[in-house]
Design goal:
Layout lengths: L4 H25 L11 H17 L4 E8 L2 H8 L1 H17 L6 E6 L2 E7 L5 H17 L8 E7 L5 H18 L4 E2 L1
Parallel strand pairs: 4-5
Antiparallel strand pairs: 1-3, 1-4, 2-3
Helix pairs in contact: 3-4, 4-5
Length: 185
Amino acid sequence: MELSKDVLLKEIQDLRDENKRLRKQMEELNTRDRLTGLLNRGALYERLEYEAVRTARGQSYLSMLLIRISDFKALVEEHGRDTTDVLVKLMSQAISESIRSVDIVGRYEDGGFLLLLPDVQPNKGAIVSERLKKAIDKQISPMGIRIKYSVGVRLYKGEPINEFLGETEKLAASSEVEGIGRAHR
């Protein structure tokens, strides 16, 4: 049986549409962390570059928060990878549910989350940080595991992106050394 030209063209178009849909799905998967569904580090960096340019052009602000589980490796050793993965998922849910729709959050490292807060006034990042810490504690408390985490908060001042990120990491490290759970800015 011979297929008509119209039927063949329709089949070809359907295959193209399916190919396009699958390509888009692949692109989406390549930007997401598999465990949490949040943006992955590469996608976060792209968004950071975009937000820094947008902030530099306008009269707006950009704050960055780095929330890091303290001594993540010891947590994994004590409670196992599966339990730690559940904790990370719960943290990501608490953070996602506690931020504005314009805020950007992603998994930055095993036990760390990076948040970009566009149009957040100076010193308001620390307030957001405190709200997030409470939300995280509430979300993970049913598990009966107390985790310690550190927070670095930084306002973008037009410096190179790597410097902005590096300074925020230093602030999170200072938070861990000087007082677990304290936000440093």
